[in-house]
Amino acid sequence: MRRKIVAGNWKMNLDAAASKELIDALQAQSLNPDVTVAVAPPFVHLGAAVAQTQNSKIGVVAQNMHQAPSGAFTGEVSASMLTSIGVHTTLLGHSERRAYFHETDALLAKKVDAALENGLDVIFCFGEELEERKSAIHFDVVTRQLTDGLFHLDAAQWKKIVLAYEPVWAIGTGETASPEQAQEMHAHIRSVLANQYDNELAQGVSVLYGGSVKPANASEIFSQPDVDGGLIGGASLNAADFAAIVNAF
Ligand code: PGA
Hints:
The chain has 249 residues and is an alpha/beta fold. 41% of the residues lie in helices and 15% in strands. 2-phosphoglycolic acid binds next to strand 8.
């Protein structure tokens, strides 16, 4: 059975005190034990978040990492730095990284390799822009993002990969893909995976949906057969809302 996952992407929000407060508040919530729950605070809070969540079911995930092992890359953080502080999963390829920091599919393929070489799990984010959906090329765009970012991996490496389909037009806009739109794309993703690898691999990978998931729409989205959870931005900054989303399964 596929893992159900809800991860909170805090983006560039919350200072140290607010980060601690949010994790405390989350730990005080009762969370569905069948769901893997994680938060992705900014780099500077990761060490504190790992210590704070030591005895809880909340995992700590990085938002990004650099592809090189070390070197003259001012302002960057490597995979081994993350594992050295107890972080064992990273997001990669978030649409804000792609749009504002010019991360390409080719670069992301290198980042994925660096993460896996260092034993990290990857939550790989991708999704089409509004214009691409309007031009009806959204399935092609997603196929390309998967092909160029991930299809160099062998089947064993896919055990470390979680996918997060996030249509860019639904991120932070309050506009959510309809449950049918999410299901249709998630089914497409599995068929592309089955084509490239096999059906067993396609059925085993958790595929999350992201983009304006809220307590009010989470259960309808999560009830779709190919949706295995969510990557939550705005609503993950509120403990009660995030817990309600976790418990929406
Ligand atoms: P949102 O962000 O829930 O605020 O739309 C989702 C994301 O960017 O991961």
